[in-house]
TrEMBL record:
Transmembrane segments: none annotated. The lineage of its organism: Eukaryota, Viridiplantae, Streptophyta, Embryophyta, Tracheophyta. Coiled coil: none annotated. This is Cupin type-1 domain-containing protein. It is found in: Membrane; Secreted, Extracellular space, Apoplast. GO terms for molecular function: manganese ion binding. It comes from Paspalum notatum var. saurae. PROSITE patterns: GERMIN. Belongs to the fatty acid desaturase CarF family. Mn(2+) binds at residues 199, 201, 206, 247. It is a multi-pass membrane protein. Its main location: membrane.
C-alpha cells in the first residue's frame, strides 16, 4: 500500500471520533465492570474454600462469556432482519456494513435534494423573481456573486453515504450569479462499488464526463418503451442523460474509486431519488398501492419502507453491510459507549441485589463476565474487520485460538444472503446454530405468524 493510501486510512472523520460523552459513558461502564470484578475477588478471598470458589467463579465467568456470544447473535440477527424506524439509536451502522464490510455505517439511500429559496438580500423596492429566486438589485451585484472557492479539485468523503457516493452541486444556491443563466455543475465521487442511485432531474439535461476510474451508466426512456440505454465509461468518456429521465451511475471496481464532473442545463436542476420518493415518502404511500404497482406481497413493501426511513440504530447496521470497514475507524469510546452506558446503570444494580441477598462470588462473576463481553463485543467485531497488521498485540493470537471472533469466520456473515455467523464475541455458537438452522426456523415461524419477511429472505 502506498504512503498516501495509508495516510488516508489514518484520517478519522469527525463523526467517527469519540466525544466527551462517549468517553464518559465508556468510563462509567468500565468502572462498573471493574467494581463488580473487585466484589467478586473480595468474596473469593474471604471464602473458607478459596479453591472451590475460584473454580465456581471461573465456570460462571465462562458461562457469561458463552452467553454473551449468543446475546450478540440474537441482537445482530434481530436488527439485521427486523429493525425498523422505532428501533433505538445504535442500528444505523449495521445494515450498511453488509455491502462494504470495511465501513460499518454506510447503507444510506441518497438524500433527496430540496432547494430552498435564495438567501440573497435584496432591496425592498426591487423584488422581481425568476424560478422562485430573488433577483438582486443590479447596483448591489459584485464579483463574489459569480465566484466560489469550491475546491472541486479535492476528493470528497464517500464514507458517510450508504450508497457510496458524494455529490458536490454548484447551483444558484451556492453561486447567485447563475440565476437565469440555465446552467449548473456537480462533482461526483464514487467509492469502490459506490453508486449515484436511480434518480431524475425534473428541470435539467445532464452531460457527464469521467475524470478518474470507470463508471457503468444509463438511463431509461419513458412509457411505454422503458428502454435502457447503458454504457461503460472510462476516463475521458462523455455521456448525456436527457431531462426528466431516470438515470444512474455505478462504479464497478472493487478497489478503485471514480470521479466525474456533470454539467446540467438549469441553475436549479432538482433531484428526485426514486427509492427515497417511492419507499421513503412522508407520510408513506399505502402498501396496498405499492404492492399492486410492483406486483409483490405487502410484507415486502413494508420491509422496503421501513428500511428506506431507518431508525438511527438500524441505519448503522445496514450501513455496516455496505461499508464494513468503517467500524475499524471508529475511535474506541465512540464504538463502545452505547453498550457501556447500559452496563454502567444495570450492573451496579445487579451487584447490589446479589450482595443484599448474600449470593456467593460465582453469582457476581457471571453478570460481570457477561457485561464485559457484551460491551467489548463491539470492539471484537471491529477487530474482525481490521487488517492483521493494524491489530493490537495479542489480538490476532486470540482470534486464531478461537477466544475472539476471527476475521475468516466473520467474513461468512458478509457474503450473501448474510444469514449466518452473527455472533461477535468468540463465534463459538455460530457453527452449531447455523448447522441446525435454528434462526432460520425462527424466521419462518415469524413469517408464518405475521407475514413479515426477514432481510435474509
Amino acid at each position: 500500500m502506498s504512503a498516501a493510501a495509508s495516510d488516508a486510512d489514518d484520517v478519522v472523520p469527525d463523526e467517527l471520533r469519540s466525544t466527551w460523552t462517549h468517553c464518559a459513558w465508556t468510563l462509567a461502564g468500565s468502572v462498573a465492570i471493574v467494581m463488580s470484578l473487585v466484589t467478586t475477588a473480595g468474596l473469593v478471598s474471604a471464602s473458607d474454600s478459596v479453591a472451590t470458589d475460584s473454580l465456581a467463579v471461573a465456570l460462571a465467568a465462562f458461562a457469561g462469556y458463552s452467553l454473551a456470544d449468543i446475546i450478540t447473535r440474537v441482537y445482530h440477527w434481530s436488527i439485521d432482519n427486523y429493525g425498523d424506524t422505532s428501533t433505538p439509536a445504535q442500528i444505523v451502522a449495521f445494515h450498511d456494513h453488509h455491502v462494504h464490510p470495511s465501513t460499518i455505517t454506510r447503507l444510506e439511500l441518497s438524500l433527496l435534494l430540496i432547494l430552498a429559496p435564495s438567501r440573497t438580500s435584496v432591496s425592498l423596492t426591487y423584488t422581481p423573481q425568476v424560478n422562485g429566486f430573488v433577483c438582486k438589485d443590479p447596483m448591489a451585484v459584485n464579483v463574489d456573486d459569480f465566484f466560489k472557492a469550491a475546491e472541486l479539485d479535492k476528493p470528497r468523503d464517500t464514507m458517510k453515504s450508504k450508497v457510496g457516493s458524494n455529490v458536490t452541486l454548484i447551483n444558484v444556491m451556492q453561486l447567485p450569479g447563475l440565476n437565469t443563466l440555465g446552467i449548473s455543475l456537480a462533482r461526483i465521487d464514487y467509492a469502490p462499488l459506490g453508486q449515484n442511485p436511480p434518480h431524475t432531474h425534473p428541470r435539467a439535461t445532464e452531460i457527464l464526463t469521467v475524470l478518474e476510474g470507470t463508471l457503468y451508466v444509463g438511463f431509461v426512456t419513458s412509457n411505454t418503451d422503458n428502454k435502457l440505454f447503458a454504457k461503460v465509461l472510462n476516463k475521458g468518456d462523455v455521456f448525456v442523460f436527457p431531462q426528466g429521465l431516470i438515470h444512474f451511475q455505478f462504479n464497478p471496481n472493487h478497489d478503485k474509486p471514480a470521479v466525474a464532473i456533470a454539467a446540467l442545463s438549469s441553475q436549479n436542476p432538482g433531484a428526485i431519488t426514486i427509492a427515497n420518493a417511492v419507499f421513503g415518502s412522508k407520510p408513506q404511500i399505502s402498501d396496498d398501492v405499492l404492492a399492486k404497482a410492483f406486483q409483490v406481497q405487502k410484507g415486502t413493501i413494508d420491509w422496503l419502507q421501513a428500511h428506506t426511513s431507518l431508525g438511527a440504530q438500524i441505519v448503522a447496521f445496514h450501513d455496516h453491510h455496505i461499508h464494513p470497514s468503517t467500524i475499524t475507524r471508529l475511535e474506541p469510546c465512540n464504538n463502545l459507549h452505547v453498550v457501556a452506558g447500559v452496563v454502567a446503570v444495570a450492573l451496579p444494580v445487579a451487584d447490589a441485589a446479589l450482595s443484599a441477598d448474600g449470593f456467593p462470588a460465582a453469582a457476581h462473576a457471571f453478570p460481570c463476565a457477561l457485561a464485559a463481553c457484551v460491551t467489548l463485543s463491539v470492539q471484537f467485531h471491529a477487530w474482525a474487520h481490521e487488517r492483521p497488521s493494524r491489530l493490537p498485540p495479542g489480538v490476532g493470537a486470540l482470534q486464531a485460538a478461537g477466544v475472539l471472533v476471527s476475521q475468516s469466520q466473520h467474513a461468512g456473515h458478509h457474503r450473501p444472503p448474510y444469514d449466518s455467523n452473527y455472533c461477535t464475541v468468540s463465534g463459538m455458537w455460530n457453527k452449531v446454530l447455523d448447522r441446525y438452522k435454528v434462526f432460520a426456523a425462527v424466521e419462518k415461524a415469524i413469517y408464518l405468524g405475521t407475514g413479515v419477511q426477514p432481510w435474509a429472505f
